[in-house]
Amino acid sequence: MVKAIRFDKTGGPEVMKWVDVDVGEPGAGEIRIRQHAVGLNYIDVYFRNGLYPLPLPGGLGMEAAGEIVAVGRGVTQLQPGDRVAYAARPPGAYTQERVMSADYVVKIPAALGYEEAASVMLQGLTAQYLLRRTYRVKPGDTILIQAAAGGVGLFVCQWAKALGATVIGTVGSDEKADIAKAHGCDYPIVYTRENFTKRVREITNGAGVPVVYDSIGKDTYTGSLDCLAPLGLFVTFGNSSGPLPPIDSQDLAGRGSLFFTRPTLFSYIGKRSDLETMSAELFDVLVSGKVKTSVNQRYALADVAKAHEDLEARRTTGSTILLP
């Protein structure tokens, strides 16, 4: 039997159980994948605690990498033995093996290992759409990334720097400031003792920034808006501190005709062609060395409750891998 994490009610980390599951064989258009590494992301917490509703009982986990062990009828672009990775819905990556649509996976370049691939699919593709599509960062831009030492944050810092941008980032400690700086953040701001809005204005000589990427949510929303230049774009792509308050359109107008967007990765990779293009660009910056993965924590998949506890307590940096 295959082991997997399942939960039948929402709540804290204790609701996740390590159980036997029957995976089955792939049907038409499907593959069966033996997973070597699973990525941990804050969206997993949102599903577990009920902020993002899921049918229950169910599984968790959005990304993983592994080896195809069987293909279903009609699958011609993949074969057993192929090394693949994915970021996909529905959740269910917290498992040793799974059956899923072949359209959701992409082949891994030979230069990338399973852990690297599993750590980049959701966070790396998120960084790709943030920097290359939601707001296309160009040389000379100055940007603000909240939670700069987190998984997406470290990708954004490195990639934006490689694109020729000046990077300002918020972090929660001096240790995280050092990590962010080592990954391309020009101005790490320790928000626990500095007013990040005031500091951003100082760095930009009062002008503000054209874009703020914010995954923290409630605690940073107003401050993030105050960092924007007129016609600036506020990008909220997570809410680790809690959901945003109701959005007042007149508030956006009064602050300088600001733009607001709430993108999701799965909108951007909804078309197979977009998934392939985005993945190719992500893999290119990784293989070239412009962006490096930072797998800073590893846990056995069976110990995922501890991983969730550490993630929610902000004791993690970079990416975290679960080993089936």
TrEMBL record:
* Annotated transmembrane regions: none
Enzyme class label: oxidoreductase
> A Pfam family in this protein?
ADH_zinc_N
The answer to whether keyword NADP applies is yes
Q: Name one GO cellular component term.
A: cytosol
- Spell out the molecular function terms from Gene Ontology: mRNA 3'-UTR AU-rich region binding; NADPH binding; quinone reductase (NADPH) activity; zinc ion binding
Recite the UniProt keywords alphabetically: NADP, Oxidoreductase
Stretch forming the signal peptide: none
Has the keyword Oxidoreductase been applied to this entry?
yes
Q: What is its EC number?
A: 1.6.5.5
Q: Which CDD domains match?
A: QOR2 (cd05286)
Boundaries of every Enoyl reductase (ER) domain copy: 11-322
This protein is called: Quinone oxidoreductase 1
State the species of origin: Paraburkholderia humisilvae
